Amino acid sequence: MEEKTYVEDVDRSVYDIRNEEGDNVYRIHQGLTKEIVMKISEEKNDPQWMRDFRLKCLDIYNDLKLPNWGADISDLNMDEIATYVRTNTKMANTWKDVPKEIKDTFEQLGIPQAERESLAGVGAQYDSELVYHNVRKEVEDQGVIYTDFESALRGPYADLVKEKFMTIIKPEEHKFAALHGAVWSGGSFVYVPKGVDVGIPLQSYFRLNAAGAGQFEHTLIIVEDGAKLHFIEGCSAPKYNVNNLHAGLVEIVVGDDATMRYSTIENWSKNMYNLNSKKAIVGKNSKMEWVSGSFGSHVSYLYPCTVLNGENSHMEFTGITFAGEGQNLDTGLKVIQNAPNTSSAVSTKSISKGGGICTTRSEVVITAKGENSKSAVSCESLMIDDISRSDTIPAMDIRTNTADVGHEATIGRISDEAVFYMMARGIPEEEAKTMIVSGFAENVSKELPLEYAVEMNNLIRLEMKGSIG
Amino acid sequence: MSKEILKVTNLSVGVGEKQILHNVNLTINEGETHVLMGPNGAGKSTLGTALMGNPKYEILSGEVSFKGEDLLEMETDKRSQAGLYLSFQNPIEVPGISFANFIRSAMEQRGEKMSLWKFKKALKEKMDVLNMKEEYAERDLNVGFSGGEKKKAEILQLLMLHPSLAILDETDSGLDVDAVKTVSTGVEEYHRTQQGALLIITHNTKILDSLHVDHTHVLVDGRIVAEGDGSLVAEINANGFEKYMTK
Asked: Looking at beta carbons, which residues of chain A come within 8 Å of B52?
């Protein structure tokens, strides 16, 4: 066990670099009151409608109860969370203008390099605000908008943003959606015009450096008819011994004959409450794909939702969740098939180890309008030891007789025979187990861009260190 | 040719409450070809898997030295790295790991690092020897391989990993005539190009056609009951094990 501690200390270091908060950091008083919400709104120079909206959300937040299911979040005390922390710097669009200590952090995480090599545009958020945003000129020339959310509120698409903001996920949906509405800051707005295929991905990277703080970024993506986009989101934070909170919101509108893929690799530190919401509304003949890797956080609630509102639309979800010691990760998805001939295909994998808890929830709703729709859900779990836990909770609500719906769930362990077989070829036990776990996760990693697949395999390797002996 | 590579002394092995091997003695020298024969359930596979260090089997007593070192003290991966190879009777399917990557990882554990290009070239050469389609290299390890392809895959690893002693556990069982011929070509290639020693566990003598057998051991009820040179194989082929079983 000693080796494990040693290895984790060393290997997590790239995520654990923390920068001391200096004098040039603005940090709002911790807690959640009307005054604090007003202050954030003032700091951000909100338009009046947004200020009113924030206050309405605060009321809704105060009225709603915490969920009475899922992982325990009673330790999360909003009075101890600072909802807005900003380094006093202007957002840059070249890396050399980003303050040095922040730039170093992102460089160690490989962000600017990935941009140079394989991305159409990059946004980097540090605590509550974006510190960097850039999009390739040729992408911009096609009319693609990729900007920080504050600019979007004032830019040429201000009316569209106002029309859509928190209408896909309404503040009444749950307590943390309302919280988000009250204190949100940062995030991105993406607009892909009709018929434009953004051939290479756009990426946002979220880094929460401040201890005892919350990150509430808002992402709104609009993909018009016949357009195509791949958006990647990466998250990480250094480890503190106080609670941090992430309650971001992602709202996606996909037109007709369009394709949207949303990929996430989340590696929050293990003092993070990750209470994130994502939802996509999809038009006819369109395709929405989710690729999701959840590795970090202390507690997660994460269930991307897809509403298939157009006929012949399709949703695909590929996800993996890895819960280690001290982690309770409640993940899954929801799909509402609300038009004829829609289909959904879901493959989730979960790995639990060292007493970690994975819960996979899937909810498939096929409404009366969803004639001849199909859904296939497969949930596989792998338990590394006897002290860990894995639950699969499927729900189905089918309102038509013509639907074709299937669900299968399996739970397994690393087979001793497979480990012996691999060792008999000279592969040490720990390496063999790591390879088996990576193999289990392979259907997700092959969906990711190369550098993310590499990062994911490194995370698995890191988690499997010291898993024997 | 007479340097000792494996020496098994009074080895007894059990699984659960049951003792399977009783005081087995066996010595194999570098480059020699040995055959282990015996009726079903005699304990032949147990000997192979116990020598490889399968944790399901318990060593009750006895000693095993491999190249002068105490084999029983070594973990399975170290036994492999030291040059011992076991071809499994039922190779295990491992999803998500490509066959080529698996072999490459195993080679790297032996300190054999080579460029991807060189590795692919070497792999292709050996696959050609075994009439294996190239696509198998990119498929998941043993997943969905036919019985014959699994056995060929075992021999391919044998050729890539350069062990000094290979135990082949019924590598020829369940194969059609052509596949036996192919597998036997691979084994012959290993023996000829790498001067590797062999302990072949078999019911079928076709696989031995292209090999010169130095020594034959007959195992019945967990005991070695007869030893001889290559001619013993033909004798057993003609008369079976009956005379040893009634003893």
From this structure: 420, 424
pLDDT digits (tens, 9 = 90+) for B87-127: 999 999 999 999 999 999 999 999 998 899 999 999 999 99
Residue A429 to residue B95, Cβ atoms within 8 A: no
> Which of B 68-87 lie inside 8 A of A, CB atoms?
75-77, 79-81, 85-86
In this structure, which amino acid lies at residue A317?
F
From CA A407, how far away is CA A405, in angstroms rounded? Answer: 7
Per-residue pLDDT, A20: 72
Q: CATH code at B16?
A: 3.40.50.300
DSSP state for residue B236 in the 8-state scheme: H
Count of CB contacts below 8 A, A vs B? Answer: 76
Q: Which two tokens stand for residue A232?
A: 């990647």
With a CB cutoff of 8 Å and minimum separation 6, the contacts of A138 are none
- Cβ density class A285-315: b for 16+ within 10 Å, e for less: bbbbbbbbbbbbbbbbbbbbbbbbbbbbbbb
Element (H, E) at B190: helix B177-194
| Structure confidence at residue A458 (pLDDT) | 82
SS3 A242: coil
Considering CB atoms only, which of A416, A426, A435 is closest to B110?
A426
Among the partner-chain residues A423, A428, A439, the one whose CB lies closest to the CB of B94 is: A439
Low-confidence ranges of chain A (pLDDT < 50): 1-11, 469
**pLDDT surpasses 50 at B33:** yes
User: In Å, how far from its chain's centre is CA A35?
Assistant: 29
Q: How far is A444 from chain B (nearest CA, A)?
A: 10
Strand B140-141 with B69-70, pairing: unpaired
Do residue B109 and residue A426 have CB atoms under 8 angstroms apart? yes
What is the three-class DSSP state of A75?
A: coil
C-beta neighbour count of A333 within 10 angstroms:
24
Cα–Cα distance measured from residue B7 to residue B95, given in angstroms and rounded to the nearest whole number: 36
**Number of independent structural domains in chain B:** 1
CA distance A65 to chain B (A): 43
Helix (H/G/I), strand (E/B), else coil: B200: strand
pLDDT value for B61 = 97
Q: What gap in Å lies between CA A126 and CA A119, rounded to an integer?
A: 19
Three-state DSSP class for residue A164: helix
pLDDT digits over B75-87, tens only?
Answer: 999 999 999 999 9
Q: Taking the CA atoms of A130, A132, A136 and A142 in sequence, report the sign of the dihedral they define.
A: positive
Query: Of A65-69, A114-118, B9-13, B34-38, which range is least confident?
Result: A114-118
How large is the C-alpha radius of gyration of chain B? 18
- Nearest of A262, A254, A445 to residue A342 by alpha carbon: A254
Whether ipTM exceeds 0.90:
yes
Q: What is the DSSP string of B12-42?
A: EEEETTEEEEEEEEEEEETT-EEEEE--TTS
CB contact under 8 A, B94 and A431: no
- CB atoms closer than 10 angstroms to residue A93: 12
What residue segments make up the domains of chain A, in order of their start?
24-414
Q: What is the percent of chain B with per-residue pLDDT over 90, rounded to a whole number?
A: 80
Q: What is the pLDDT of residue B202?
A: 87
CB–CB of A466/B121 below 8 Å? Answer: no
Which helix (H) or strand (E) element contains residue A466?
A: none
Domain containing residue B236? 4-245
* A-chain residue closest to B140, CA distance: A439
**Tokens in use for B51?**
């020598």
For residue A14, what pLDDT is reported?
64
Distance CA B74, CA B69 (A): 9
pLDDT for res A103: 79
Contact: B52, A426; criterion CB under 8 Å: no
